[in-house]
Amino acid sequence: MSRIVPFETTLEVRDACLCLHVQRAARALARRFDEALRPVGLTHGQFSLLMSLNQPQPPALGAVARLLAMDRTTLTAALKLLERDGLVSSRADPSDRRSRWVTLTGKGLEVLAAAVPIWRETHAAVEAGLSEPGPDVLRAGLLALT
């Protein structure tokens, strides 16, 4: 059987595909932060979700979903786990019973406070390991893709 797509194309995609490289980097970063945050019982995704809720007023879930690039169904499932663990609480929005307010509980605030120094240390180590032009240029490039 002859190849319709030559092996050279496979090598081209392996070496050039931005999506593949971003996915691989995201998985490596996720593993690193998951390991670092394990002592406080969080994953990197849970840390980001708790941090997104750390606001003076409960944020709209749509805004949280957009910030975290999650669909509402995935966000709701993640919040249910955090609520089960006592890290967040939810209640109906008094002005619109169809909407829900999700806030950090006292326990959620304590866990988040314990996680921040771990995140800072891990994040600093990741940034220190980046070659020039450095993390600011990387962040700008990634933001340009969103």
Automatic annotation (TrEMBL):
Per its UniProt record, what InterPro entries does this chain match?
A: HTH_MarR-typ, MarR/SlyA-like, WH-like_DNA-bd_sf, WH_DNA-bd_sf
| PROSITE patterns to which the protein is assigned, alphabetical | HTH_MARR_2
Domain of life per record: Bacteria
**Which residues, by range, are in coiled-coil regions?**
none
Stretches assigned to the HTH marR-type domain: 15-146
Which Pfam families does the UniProt entry name for this protein? Answer: MarR
Protein's UniProt name: MarR family transcriptional regulator
**Species in which this protein is naturally found:** Stigmatella ashevillensis
What is the phylogenetic placement of the source species in the record? Bacteria, Pseudomonadati, Myxococcota, Myxococcia, Myxococcales
